[in-house]
Task: structure prediction
Amino acid sequence: MKVLLVKDVYKLGRAGDVKRVADGYGRNYLLPQGLAVLATPGALKQVEGIRAKAAEQRAALNKEMGGLAEKLQGVYVAFAVKAGETGKLYGSITPAMVAEELSKKVGATVDRHSIEMAPIRTLGEFKAAVRLTVDLIPEVKVYVHREGEVIELPETEAPAEAPEAPAAEEAAETTEA
Result:
């Protein structure tokens, strides 16, 4: 089935594109959701208008989400988890968990469906992409370490264990006096 996309569809194409899709996908999802119309000769005459309108909407959405993208770019989240001796986790870090931590850290809602990553099942440093719009996809870092371990994070970012350090310095100052 040939369809003309009316809106941007993730992993399929942008508005104004003519795509060949499976009959069931077109009939059961794209057409009822209003994401596409059948590629008839009359609909194909409207391609330029659809592309122009979609470009305006895309630009407005990118401008709106630009602030959130800047906040998210380079942000890290750290998870302290239980793991075996080989570094394999007793469970996994899911996109939903990353989205929840990002929402807390940035102060804006991040949808779990917009996080592009596979579940993490080992210790280490990983990257996750946050798909805000078709054009805005900031990357965040995910650090996974054992419970009780202090990890070395980049200097520009404050470590999660930072509150413990000042308490130790205060204790040292009181013993000297």
About this structure: Residues 18 and 92 are 40 Å apart (CA to CA). Residues 69-176 form a domain with the Ribosomal Protein L9; domain 2 fold (CATH 3.10.430.100). Residues 156-177 have pLDDT under 50 and may be disordered.
